[in-house]
Specification:
The complex is a heterotrimer of chains A (391), B (298) and C (97).
Chain A: E1 3-7, H1 8-18, E2 23-25, H2 33-44, E3 51-53, H3 58-70, E4 75-79, H4 81-86, H5 88-96, E5 102-107, H6 121-124, E6 132-135, H7 139-153, E7 162-167, E8 175-179, H8 183-190, E9 193-195, E10 206-207, H9 213-245, E11 253-256, E12 263-267, H10 271-284, E13 289-294, E14 296-298, H11 302-309, E15 314-319, H12 329-338, E16 348-353, H13 362-377, E17 385-388
Parallel strand pairs in A: 2-3, 2-4, 4-5, 5-7, 6-7, 12-13, 12-15, 15-16, 16-17
Antiparallel strand pairs in A: 1-8, 6-14, 11-13
Helix pairs in contact in A: 1-2, 1-7, 3-5, 7-9, 10-13
Chain B: H1 7-10, H2 27-39, E1 43-47, H3 51-55, E2 61-62, E3 67-70, H4 76-89, E4 96-102, H5 103-108, H6 111-120, E5 124-130, H7 165-171, E6 176-181, H8 185-197, E7 201-207, H9 211-214, H10 221-230, E8 237-240, E9 243-246, H11 262-267, H12 277-297
Parallel strand pairs in B: 1-3, 1-4, 4-5, 5-7, 6-7
Antiparallel strand pairs in B: 6-8, 8-9
Helix pairs in contact in B: 2-8, 4-6
Chain C: E1 6-8, E2 17-20, E3 34-38, H1 48-52, E4 58-61, E5 65-68, H2 78-82, E6 88-92
Antiparallel strand pairs in C: 3-6, 4-5
Chain lengths: 391, 298, 97
């Protein structure tokens, strides 16, 4: 398989092209713009047989993507930050309608002030919506996740839309080698597009009419059920992709040196790569630490989280987002979901960092992890919540 | 030998199904019957938040014998755009996609998506049914509410003049723009038939007097609609290829002297109960200015 | 292979999808306080009442006249108003309505 050197944005565009998306409705926003530009180029060059709807806003972007999808087309869009917030009501609408759609999110800080660098607030702000949410660490995984997203969303056991996150600039504008599979193999593996219904004039159907409370609650319970089944589907897809394309990541989470770790770190996104470097260096110094990297935050990998962290001596959860007035979102998810399995939680520390795009390096991670473990080994529990800020 | 039934009402049968929750005398189902009669049953209506969202009735039933896609308030035109392109990509060419939105969902919150869809010239018919306020939420003003009218958010009467959305669509240069009225359903039917044959973005603004919001007896919906035309206040026309053509019911009223006095129209409606002489004069001037610019395009 | 094929595969989950039905909120004839009555002798079968009825509950037979489905007629009076020959009269609805 050939390897291309691609930025994250071009990777997403290429994957969408190879998934043969039929309609793209997108609006430019830094740092997503080159995804849309690349797709427009593919279409104009005849490389992609898709309709590009150059909508006038992000709200319309997801509205039009939704429209194309309910009419039966494989539809795709991408956005960031304010664009995602602007289309937020459509994010809910799409999952409630149980229509498969795939969207890439180049995560970017939300204003005020204007800030184009990465944090995960925009992405994690969607975690209640009923979308499958997954996050890439590097461009290879980004390519793989984008292709897989179509298969997961269009699985009749799931029928929920998917969002793929990639960090602004760190992935979106950074070129990395990406192994690109054969188009025929992708076609075969993805197969036909499946959706639960189509509104295409063949028979009269009304989508979204007023529903009484009990009926509404039943629709929503269906989404929660689908999320539960999606965990299985995601693992299946990851395995199948591994068999056919040669790359598998371990399912909903990736375990990096965590099977024999006594202390664990949790993270999501590009900085996980820096954490892995830090872990390698710490291991060399004798620190028994590993990383559980979150690939899918929805559905939440509760079983994996419990099995990996349940008997940890100490867990550090790095959050690149803050729920103001509370804690980091991933930390909250982990704590809550662990309680499904045990009322006795291990020591868990939340470190919020990298907000607004502050660059957190492997040196910072080494220091933070080392300090935490050293402290715990002395029998002193560090504060469970820290906002690590550096200038 | 039984006389054949003309298209209206023959093709209106089995379109709107009786037993829906619209108010007595509601203009919405009148227009919807006409739309489906003209365009046929292979029809997808894209409906944002508005009275019609409720008129079609609750899940699991629907009072329209056509497909309906309920959408967020601002999005009728953008979802319709997506449906049109999705169907086209699938090679489906014989289904009509119609965005059916109120004045609120078109002139106010829907203005951006309307403008976008019009500029991109998607092959759809956008129908703005104009009951001149946000009726579904209980009669609040929209930019399409005429000056002088009472609404719950303009208790002393709206100060600003009515926003002319049809004119905005003409300024977009779309292939076909028309105004229509529930008082003249044959005229609306003809316009729909014509629009269906024109490729690209078509816009029809249907005047839809609302008994509940305008405060008149529900039996008088058609009478009020006709009076709007007979006073010259609502002008029926078509715009195509850079020219405006007056529709037959409005043709006499290009002559100011043929128009019935506007006060007759205002007196029929409780929402104009508090209008002053000054308010009436302002409305008359607005009507005159509208005729002026229409003349320029004729 | 080169084009996406669509397969509609239903789900067992309840979906917010509705289908056309008569009487979606029941028999709206119960809304009436006035009732239209057609004088078939006067009726000229011009179809105006059927065309303008918002509830689509009048059917005009070109030979026999205009027939109202009282299960659904709300008694709005539009038929009486648009009838060019005043063949429809509105009478007070009898009984507990």
């Amino acid at each position: 398989m050939p390897k291309l050197v691609l930025t994250g944005n071009y990777t997403v565009a290429l994957a969408a092209k190879m998934a043969r998306v039929q309609v793209v409705a997108a609006y430019p926003i830094t740092p997503q713009t080159s995804i849309v530009e690349k797709l427009a180029e593919y279409v104009d060059k005849g490389e992609l047989d898709a309709e590009m709807i150059r909508v006038e806003s992000e709200h319309s972007a997801l509205a039009a993507t939704f429209g194309a999808a309910i009419a039966g087309a494989r539809a795709f869009t991408a956005t960031s930050s304010h664009g995602l917030l602007y289309m937020h009501e459509w994010v809910h609408w799409t999952s409630h309608a149980r229509i498969p759609v795939v969207m890439a999110i180049v995560t970017r800080t939300i204003a005020a002030p204007w800030n184009i660098w990465s944090d995960h607030t925009d992405f994690l702000g969607q975690r209640d919506t009923g979308w499958i949410l997954c996050f890439a660490m590097d461009n290879q995984e980004l390519f793989d996740l984008t292709i897989q997203a179509f298969k997961i969303s269009e699985d009749p056991r799931v029928y929920l839309p998917s969002m793929i996150g990639l960090d602004a600039f760190i992935l979106s504008h950074t070129a990395m080698p990406v192994e690109v599979p054969d188009q025929k193999l992708v076609d075969e593996w993805l197969g036909s597009r499946r959706q639960p219904y189509a509104i295409d004039g063949l028979q009269p159907l009304a989508l979204g009419s007023l529903a009484w409370p009990e009926d509404t609650e039943e629709f929503f319970m269906g989404i929660q059920e689908a999320m539960e089944v999606a965990k299985k589907v995601i693992r299946e897809v990851d395995e199948s992709y591994g068999r056919v394309f040669g790359r598998s990541y371990g399912g909903l989470v990736e375990c990096y040196r965590c099977s024999d770790a006594k202390y664990h770190v949790v993270s999501m996104g590009a900085w996980s790569g820096d954490i892995m470097e830090a872990i390698d260096m710490l291991r060399d110094e004798g620190y028994p630490v590993g990383l559980m990297r979150i690939r899918f935050i929805r559905p939440f990998p509760d079983r994996e989280v419990y099995s990996i962290l349940g008997s940890s001596r100490g867990v550090i959860v790095f959050d690149r987002a803050i729920s103001f007035g509370s804690l980091g979102p991933i930390y909250l998810d982990i704590a809550g979901n662990m309680l499904k399995y045990t009322q006795k939680l291990p020591y868990m520390r939340n470190i919020v960092a990298g907000i607004g795009g502050v660059n957190v390096t492997y040196e910072d991670f080494i220091k933070l992890i080392k300090d935490t473990i050293d402290s715990l080994e002395k029998g002193v529990e560090p504060p469970t919540y820290t906002w690590y800020h550096k200038r | 030998m039984s006389r054949p039934i003309p298209p209206l009402p023959r093709d209106m049968r089995d379109t709107i199904l009786p037993g829906h929750p619209a108010c007595h005398g509601c203009p919405i189902p009148m227009a919807l019957k006409t739309i489906e009669a003209a365009l046929g049953k292979k029809l997808i209506l894209v409906i944002p938040a508005c009275c019609t969202s409720i008129v079609v009735g609750p899940w699991p039933g629907c009072a329209i014998n056509a497909s309906v896609v309920h959408v967020a308030f601002a999005s009728a035109a953008s979802v319709a755009s997506g449906i049109v392109e999705g169907l086209r990509k699938r090679g489906i060419e014989d289904v009509h996609v119609v965005a059916w939105a109120g004045d609120g969902g078109t002139a106010d919150i829907g203005m951006a998506s309307l403008s976008g869809a019009a500029e991109r010239n998607h092959n759809m018919i956008y129908i703005m049914y104009d009951n001149e306020a946000y009726m579904n939420t209980g009669i609040q003003r929209s930019s399409s509410t005429p000056s002088g009218a009472w609404t719950t958010t303009t208790p002393l009467g709206k100060r600003e003049p009515k926003k002319d959305v049809a004119r905005i669509m003409i300024a977009h240069g779309v292939p076909y723009v028309a105004t229509a009225s529930v008082g003249y359903l044959h005229d609306l039917y003809n316009k729909l038939k014509k629009a269906a044959r024109i490729p690209g973005f078509k816009f029809i603004q249907v005047h839809a007097p609302c008994p509940t919001g305008w405060r008149f007896d529900p039996s008088k919906t058609v009478e009020v609609a006709k009076l709007a035309v007979e006073t010259g206040l609502w002008i029926l026309y078509e715009y195509r290829d850079g020219r405006i053509t007056l529709s037959p019911p409005s043709r006499p009223y290009i002559d100011k002297s043929k128009r019935k006095p506007i006060i007759e129209y205002l007196r029929m409606q409780g929402r104009f109960k508090g209008v002053s002489e000054e308010d009436v004069r302002v409305i008359e001037e607005y009507v005159e200015r509208t005729w002026d610019w229409i003349r320029k395009y004729m | 292979m080169g084009k996406v094929v669509l397969e509609v595969v239903p789900t067992k989950h309840k979906l917010p999808l509705a289908k056309p039905v008569v009487g979606v909120v029941g028999k709206t004839g119960s809304w009436r306080w006035m009732k239209p009555v057609v004088d078939q002798g006067k009726c000229v079968k011009c179809f105006q009442c059927e065309i303008y009825c918002p509830d689509n509950c009048i059917h005009v037979d070109p030979e026999k006249g205009a027939f109202i489905d009282y299960d659904y007629c709300k008694g709005c009076g539009l038929c009486a108003s648009v009838c060019p020959v005043k063949a429809v009269s509105m009478v007070r609805e009898s009984g507990g309505g």
